[in-house]
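Incident log, support desk, overnight shift.

02:14 A customer reports that sequence design results differ from what the structure should imply. Their input is reproduced verbatim below. On-call engineer (initials T.W.) acknowledged and began investigating.
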């Protein structure tokens, strides 16, 4: 391990913390221990660790909440979750939020040593990569929020193309941020101090589209009571962004092609030719080549515009970016609406992560705005979600449904107790493992063979019961 390696242990039990610290005493790394999630956040803010040993159950918040907070930070420690309440679902959630390993109590010193050393190796490898690519872990860029790999590639593409005058063709589903991308290219380039003019070709009637782009002279058509500049003139020296360009009428595409080739145009109803210096950016939510093949988009215009393509990924393919974007929106909308919301509850984070977001970031904006307008509180719960998400909770949160069924059935089941013995009866002393086995088997029989239900009654994880049953079978 390197001299700068550091480990942050987040464990609220003093006795367990002492055991783990003793296990790691010989490791050449600085070990710091805190006892709460808030203390962990403060410690990482002041001095980001190489490795984070994070207990799932903390007195003030869940370890998953700490993991979620980490997703919005510029530093990325290697995270190992520790819990006595292990389950596949929790492990999957922890891995989804960025943990690389999962230790279930109790574990011995050898297991901890191997896990921590592997984490240290991974941390040093990440630092080497970051040394070569200093900006690889950006969590935001020019209006975009998110640090996923696919977005890092978008950021690099924007930086590479921005200094050029080459035409950029931005593709992506509706709501993925195509105009944000166009503005980022403009702001990163040499025209940043010049106008950025955006025109949505799908929102303007086709009979008015030519005037919107090129402007018109007085009397050019009914209602043209004065001369008017179009987007081409307004963008002179700067950038003209034509959004949803696939919606443009074929006849107008011909005029646009000449404008792109020469920089010259005529206003509607005019005869004088104007020349401007414009950087062209365009976007569509369709496949432009399929539009060419379908006869809806001119092939020569396609080749003129499709110089540098940038594809924006849908939100469902951006991993935990959805939570980072959601948190930013929650902070903004809560402030706008005068509400107290500060964070999403654990179940809500799972819903946001698992939902497919067909409307992408725009749909997420609507969901968070709906929550802030209609509700209040410090934490967003599933009860605050709008109807379209609540209707899918059984699919998005199947473990919640199972948990609810167990709680109901347990409440309806007579209390599980060890049978009372007559006064004066002395139970024979037997091995502890045998007493434990009898208690587990009695609980399983009581629950008609339902091990998850038995584990709930015994307050252990189902995996513990399965593991013990396997060890008994090997002894027989």
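02:41 Re-run completed on a clean worker. Output:
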């Amino acid at each position: 391990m390197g001299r700068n390696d550091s480990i942050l242990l987040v464990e609220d039990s003093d006795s367990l913390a002492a055991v783990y610290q003793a296990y790691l005493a010989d490791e050449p790394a600085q070990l710091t221990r805190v006892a709460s999630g808030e203390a962990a956040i403060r410690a990482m803010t002041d001095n980001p660790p190489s490795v984070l040993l994070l207990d799932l159950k903390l007195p003030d918040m869940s370890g998953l909440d700490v993991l979620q907070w980490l997703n919005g930070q510029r530093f990325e420690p290697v995270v190992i979750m520790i819990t006595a309440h292990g389950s596949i679902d929790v492990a999957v959630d922890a891995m989804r939020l960025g943990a690389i390993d999962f230790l279930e109590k109790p574990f011995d010193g050898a297991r901890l040593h191997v896990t921590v050393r592997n984490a240290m190796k991974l941390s040093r490898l990440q630092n080497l990569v970051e040394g070569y690519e200093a900006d690889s872990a950006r969590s935001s860029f020019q209006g975009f929020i998110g640090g996923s790999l696919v977005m890092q590639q978008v950021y690099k593409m924007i930086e590479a193309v921005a200094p050029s005058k080459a035409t950029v063709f931005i593709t992506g589903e509706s709501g993925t941020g195509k105009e944000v991308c166009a503005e980022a290219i403009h702001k990163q380039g040499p025209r940043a101090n010049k106008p950025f003019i955006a025109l949505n070709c799908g929102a303007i009637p086709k009979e008015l589209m030519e005037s919107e782009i090129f402007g018109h002279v007085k009397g050019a058509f009914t209602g043209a009571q004065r001369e008017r500049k179009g987007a081409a003139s307004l963008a002179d020296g700067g950038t003209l962004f034509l959004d949803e360009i696939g919606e443009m009428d074929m006849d107008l595409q011909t005029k646009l092609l000449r404008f792109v080739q020469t920089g010259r145009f005529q206003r509607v109803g005019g005869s004088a030719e104007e020349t401007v210096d414009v950087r062209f950016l365009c976007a569509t939510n369709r496949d432009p080549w399929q539009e060419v093949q379908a006869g809806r988009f001119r092939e020569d215009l396609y080749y003129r515009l499709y110089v540098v393509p940038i594809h924006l990924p849908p939100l469902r393919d951006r991993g935990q970016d959805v939570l980072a974007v959601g948190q930013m929106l929650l902070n903004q909308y809560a402030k706008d609406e005068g509400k107290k919301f500060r964070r999403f509850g654990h179940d809500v984070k799972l819903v946001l992560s698992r939902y497919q977001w067909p409307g992408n970031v725009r749909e997420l904006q609507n969901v968070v705005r709906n929550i802030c307008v209609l509700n209040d509180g410090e934490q967003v719960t599933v009860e605050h979600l709008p109807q379209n998400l609540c209707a899918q909770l059984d699919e998005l949160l199947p473990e919640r449904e199972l948990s609810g069924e167990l709680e109901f059935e347990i409440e309806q089941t007579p209390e599980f107790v060890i049978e009372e013995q007559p006064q004066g009866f002395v139970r024979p002393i037997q091995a502890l493992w045998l007493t434990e086995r009898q208690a587990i088997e009695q609980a399983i029989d009581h629950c008609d063979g339902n091990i998850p239900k038995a584990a709930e009654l015994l307050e252990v994880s189902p995996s513990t019961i399965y593991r013990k049953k396997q060890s008994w079978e090997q002894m027989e």
